[in-house]
Amino acid sequence: MRGRTIKLYTMSEQYKNLQIAELGNWTGKVYIGERKHVQLLKKFEELSAPGIYFLMSDIEESYLKRMYIGEADEVNQRLQDHFKSKDWWSTFAIFISKDNNLTKAHVRYLEKELYIIAKNNTTTVKVDNTNIPTGSKMPQSDREDMDEFSENITFVLKNLRIMDFTKTSSEDINNLEQSNLNQLSISDSPIFKINIAKKQAKLQIVHGVYKLLKGSYIRKEHNRGFVAHNYSKLRKQLEDENYFSVSEDSDFYILLKDIDFKSPSAAGAIVRNSSTNGRKDWKLDNGTSLDDYENNLL
Description:
By secondary structure, the chain is an alpha+beta fold. It is 28% helix and 24% strand.
């Protein structure tokens, strides 16, 4: 996969070190800041235009980030409204177009697409939106332009460590042949297993993501020391959101659908209901650990 350049500019103390980022050969532009920067946004005329924005905060004692995704005709004004109405968020990222080509239809389309991506990242993101965005109908040419815009948004968010999306963009997938590890698809990736009392959980590496597979057995009983672990909260979230079902064995659940993880240890902890070293404990049938397998691919 070819390299890309992200330019990050930190403003002077007069602007409280508000940041602007741009991606090479892209018309998009992102303002990155904190609540203290909201009143400054009205100074920037280009923010009095349609845009897409993210409100974010860390969830205490959790690996998850809380996120709200929105769109507005005038994003600087909308952020001021959210400053008054939502007190939970601490940081924001606003995406606009440098050439003023984003319309209301464009940002509505982006809002829905990015909402879907965020909702699919159950193990990293807790979406705060109470309603599903309506999106918008556009010509195919516009949809393709906005799909590329969306891919660049997730690329910037991930690579500036603002938001850790595990979902791979279509652009990333198109370039996977340059990476031995990331090129593995669901059909050619080997299956790693963890055995628990003669039951198995299965995991695959798909486009660089650790995918816990539907049908895996999930242990019910937990290690008492695991209750205070951050992955324990993630495990409870998945249970509350009905990812598990009863199995023929009263000591185990069955996973109802695939789940993507950024860490094999997180996937292993969900399976075992205890802390685990996923890189050592996930193994192929021949005994090769996931860690050794990945090292051999490099």
